[in-house]
Structure prediction request, 182 residues.
Amino acid sequence: MTAKELAEANIKLVYLIAHRYKNLGEFEELVANGMVGLVKAARNYQEGRVAFSTYACRCIENEIKIRHRFERNPKRYPEKSLLSLDYTIGDDDKNEGSFDCWIPSSEQTPLEIIEKKEFWNMTKAFIEQLDERERTVFEGIMIHGLNQPQISSSLGVTQSWVSRMLKKLKQQYRNFAMSYGF
Prediction:
């Protein structure tokens, strides 16, 4: 089954789990957060380890809990630390780019999307100045759409190392983009 088929076949799970957590907030908001978890589960599911519904339940619950923690204590969980796809590149006056342009659509590959953006040349210059491991992490996440566990296994490091490296790279990229005027 494709990721889309898995997600469509298990939408009822989202409503079931959102109903369990209805005391945490608006039901529609819980369903929306649960849908995000379902999509993540469908994209990252590896057949053969556990049943999809078991894996999806955990992903849906985790997404609902993460959003609840953020809403409860936004200072502890700043919005941009949630690795939001709308994390902007540049200062508040010139928010001219964001990571959401790197989400693949069914018609285009991530690389085709990036090539259309005016800051692609700046991004290439940033990538060229990275060492091999940094480049693997940056390109894996931002261009090839890999997740952290996939990158960590290919590099032979822990997922937490990849997470720390990604955080460091995003800050470096932001500074690099601001020095270019983005």
